[in-house]
Design goal:
single chain; about 250 residues; alpha+beta; Arc Repressor Mutant, subunit A; Chorismate lyase; 2 domains; two-stranded antiparallel ribbon; elongated
Length: about 250
């Protein structure tokens, strides 16, 4: 017996071909118009649009309708390539917005372990987002030993590189990087910052930056919207970086 695709899947396939021919930010027909065109219910149209939205091809915004999404941002990964340097190499303008900063807070157990601090130690934390073309791309939670955090001006994070800020505050260069990446469900805080539903899957990079003596000076978690980013790994990119930009995430 031949398998028959659900109607919403065939509609999604038709719309996908059409979306690829449209300019970014183009406004698509309304759900009513599409339901009339395909002779189906609005529920079926919504199911088709949900497939396209989950793949990052469109965005559905309350009060604006269905919009064709810009092409996905390419994030080049290397243990020695930071977000700021990557965007600079690609000639892409971006905006960094600091959401919060605490110079002294009780360290979560995992963070204390990563920074090689005793239990109940104090750390600093900065929370920020990156935007390209007015769209949120990623969210950062960055933690520092308290002594370093107290020397950090959070306002500088919106104009300077994160690696430059921590190196200046710590008085040392970043010499080693520990870096793990995986797909995780976004926490409520991260989801709110990224503008996505709670528990949506995100691509995460957990990192630790070390000074030359293997002392950690920063750790954190960077979460990327997978509907707006794709990832490329090119180790040789570090050869083009300037001094002070040889960091990841």
């Amino acid at each position: 017996m031949r398998n028959v695709k659900p109607r919403y899947v065939t509609i999604a396939e038709t719309l996908e071909k059409e979306v690829q021919q449209l300019a970014p930010n183009s406004l698509m027909p309304t759900e009513d118009q599409m339901a009339k065109r395909f002779e189906v219910s609005r529920i079926t149209v919504r199911a088709a649009l949900e497939l396209l939205e989950n793949s990052g091809l469109i965005s559905r915004l309350r009060g604006r309708g269905t919009i064709v999404s810009p092409k996905k941002l390419v994030r080049n990964f290397s243990p020695f390539l930071g977000f700021e340097a990557d965007m600079k190499l690609q000639g892409i303008d971006f905006v960094t917005k600091v959401l919060s900063f605490e110079s002294s807070m009780l360290a979560p157990v995992k963070i204390a372990n990563q920074l090689q601090l005793p239990e109940n130690s104090k750390v600093g934390r900065i929370s920020l987002i990156r935007l390209v073309n007015d769209q949120v791309i990623c969210h950062d939670h960055r933690y520092y030993p308290e002594a370093i955090a107290k020397k950090i001006d959070p306002k500088k994070a919106e104009t300077a590189t994160c690696s430059g800020i921590v190196q200046s505050a710590a008085g040392t260069k970043i010499r080693q990087v520990h870096w793990d990446s995986e797909i995780l469900s976004a926490s409520q805080e991260v989801a709110a910052a990224l503008g996505i539903a709670n528990r949506t899957l995100v691509f995460t990079s957990n990192y630790i930056w070390y000074a030359s003596n293997r002392v950690p000076i920063e750790t954190g978690l960077v979460s990327y919207r997978v509907d707006r980013c794709k990832f490329r790994f090119k180790e040789q990119l570090h050869e083009t970086l300037e001094e002070g930009e040889t960091t990841s995430v």
